[in-house]
# Entry
Amino acid sequence: MLFSFFLVFAQKDQSKSFQLLDANTSMPVPYAHIIHEDRLIAMTDYYGNFKLKLNGTEGQYLVSCIGYENLIFNITRLSGHSFEKLWIKPSERLLGEVTISPTSLQDMIAEVYENIPKAYTSTPHLLIGVLHEKYTDTTGHVHISSEALLQVQKLDYKSQRNKGDVKIDSLSKKYDVKDTLYSKIYAGAHIPHRFDFVMRKEDFINPNGFDKYDYSYLGEWESNNQKLTVIGFEPKTMGPMNGQFRGEMYIDFDQKVFVKAEYEYSRMGFMSNPLSRWADKRTFISIYEQSSDGWYLSSTWDEAVRSKDNFVLSQFYETKQVHFDTMTHWTYDEKIHLHEAVTEQKADTIITESKSKDHNKTVGYDRGRKFNWLDRIEVGYGLKYYLFNTYTLSSAGSTTYNSQNFNVTDTFDIKKGYLNLLTTIRYRLLPNFLLTFNAAGSFNEVVRNESMDLGILYLFDLKTSRPSYISTSIAYAHYKNLLMYEEINQTTPIYEKKERGIQLGIGYEFRLNPNWKLALSYKNFVSLNEGERYYLQEKYGFMNLLKKKHNYPKKEIIWVNDENSIDAIPQLFKSHSFDISFIFSVK
# Structure
């Protein structure tokens, strides 16, 4: 009895590794499907490898791959070794009678494309699914293995959409890092958006991109009693403006839907696509299923190989639940990469976060913590450069305060520009919509500049090698120019000019790491109201930290510009400024 217990226990955790090879060339066969009891349970990787957890399971397994005959094998008839090679024969079939139709493949694909709004989910919907992500080397050793429970907010399929929100409800990570691990990737939990080729309306199914590709009929493929037509596509010519992908699409022409696509970046395609420049080869598989509300994304898988780092990334997302007519908002807008979370921890550790109980009511993304309003705040420090009109201004006069005479005679050389310290505070109202406050103060002791503005900033996402944005802003701004005279007995005569108005800005920001960004911007100020003031600034209190102001009449001062007497100070600030700052997230 005890022997039987240990036998059953051993079978429970038993696994077996395989490599699928071409029977003619002995080359690995990548991305083949392994099916058991009409369910996809595994897929070969770039090197033809896959692993099965047997768990005492018997019966037949089907191996299916485009261009090859189906292979059926039985576990009980294989050797008892932990590693097994399987050989699959290429498919060579002679076509019978061929009927020539005036309708081209492009016309047929276009008809399915036009049917997307009708066939696919027509309302906002929430996908609940599981994402598996592994960093392995080309020997098959798993350095990092991650699993996350995701909420994926999808909108309808009526319009083209390239991005969306994702929330991680739980995350588990396992480490066995043996070597330096390459981890500069940009996909992670967002792959249900990035590889949804139907919602993104990628150019290989879009009539606007047909002129970039050659299409070919590859045959028919039957899955779950559904007959699908397989059409291959590849770029007509290599070039950065031509097609980015090559692969096969599986179409149900009876229902006019794209059911599946297996594709990869072409050489020029991945070179022209900044999000995959780091990989030597990147392959994707996306599958859709039908529901009462239309077709939706059932699963997506991708694998990337970077040979020089001996690095293989594999990711697989599978939808477990769908909630229709559901719209959820989260506050964190950045690309969520599982590698950012896992590589922050030490090796040989396992971390498991608690799951969210109510998927429809949870709000906020926080990598396993409760939502904190601090996650919405960003703070930045940098420099602000003002452009000025150049003048040589001289003043003559004096004023009296507390029986003390103050000389307000001096000459000021106004330069072309002044550099200020800049402080920025942002509060995220919506994913790309921020409330901003900026304050700048001058280095200069004689000619000083100060500014403050409060406004709204909007960030437009860019497809670049790093997450980056074009920023546009509008704000209410307050600029102040100060001319400082000689201080006497802790009291300084000052001329002050204030301007209030609207400030428009445009800039560029890019992410340096998960928490830091570099922001560059140009600001143009439109003055709506201005005023000037002459006063004495007196320091007092502990260490002279407190200040009070005493106005004195303007008539006591005479101004001269380039030896010409003037009634008023000319316009100093040219209304243009440039900002550079480092922005970091408060978490």
About this structure: The mean pLDDT is 78.
